[in-house]
Amino acid sequence: MVNSIHDRAVLHNGVHMPWIGLGVYKAEEGDEVVQAIKWALDAGYRSIDTASFYDNETGVGKAIRESTVPREELFITTKVWNTDQGYDQTLAAFDASLQRLGLDYVDLYLIHWPVPGKYKETWKAIEKIYQDGKAKAIGVSNFKQHHLEDLIADAEIKPMVNQVEYHPRLTQDELLSYCKEQGIQLEAWRPLLKGEILEEPVLVKMAEKHNKSVAQIILRWDIQNGVVTIPKSVTKHRIEENVEIFDFELSAEEMSQISSLNQNKRNGVDPDDSEFYKQFE
Is 60 helix (H, G, I), strand (E, B) or coil? Predict the structure, then answer.
């Protein structure tokens, strides 16, 4: 059982990944993202999740350099964007991300979306990045089971992480089971559904019982399901609150109640949406 912010998930290559991290999607480059990361590090976070698409890697790097936390204690994730996919393009995009971050390596490098006809070549480049020691772990984001099966069929190295939309309205039970069977760590983005689920009566009642916020109930549910989570915030008290989830435990009945809220409802793009990918052809 995960009972401390210092506990870590162990990826299939032996790398230790924090169970909770700070997502910085839409955190503005410059002071906003730097300050959010500083608050997070002060609160005990050690994992920061960014992407080239977020346009704030430079700020993430600045916050890391200005922190007193040793680099080896941090877990930094970034991702290759859709327009940079393909073998040579991915290698160049990775080098550009490293330069913006001001780092010698990242802890996790992900394919941001499974762009049809491109993600296999992209993965070959990411395997090389891993073999060259420039990424401690590699993985994918927004991959459904059929994408993973297709990728693994020709891969030298199996993805270590799959970061997907995951929350009580989209529990992705089959994908979670498949990833566990394959030794792929599932990671949740948008775990709080942009706040849309925070007034759900079942969750409100549970929060009152545990003297916690609804957000804390949801994040605890993630972790007890074996899902790494990266809530996004640039607000100090929310950043601090989101990590205060290691001093209580949800019962099996409560876990089931939360899972029963599933509606297979996506807030973001469906990874099979062909219209979404046409802009990157």
Answer: helix
Give yes or no: 87 in active site.
no
For the question of whether the overall pTM of this predicted structure is more than 0.85, the answer is: yes
Dist. CA 8–CA 15, nearest whole Å? 9
Identify the DSSP state of 54: G
Beta strands (DSSP E) in the chain are 8-10, 16-18, 22-23, 47-49, 75-80, 106-111, 135-141, 161-165, 185-189, 228-229
Residues 58 and 101: their CA atoms lie apart, in Å, by: 5
- DSSP annotation of 13: T
Q: What are residue 41's phi and psi, to 5 degrees?
A: -65, -40
Catalytic entry in 45, 54, 119, 277: 54
What ranges do the domains of the chain cover? 8-278
Give the pLDDT confidence of 10-67 residue by residue, as tens digits.
Answer: 999 999 999 999 999 989 998 999 999 999 999 999 999 999 999 999 999 999 999 9
Q: From CA 169, how far away is CA 51, in angstroms rounded?
A: 25
CATH class, domain 8-278, is alpha beta
202-256 confidence digits (pLDDT tens) = 999 999 999 999 999 999 999 999 999 999 999 999 999 999 999 999 999 999 9
End-to-end CA distance of the chain: 44
Instruction: Tell me how far apart the alpha carbons of residues 189 and 231 are, in angstroms, rounded to a whole number.
Output: 7
CA distance 189 to 139: 14
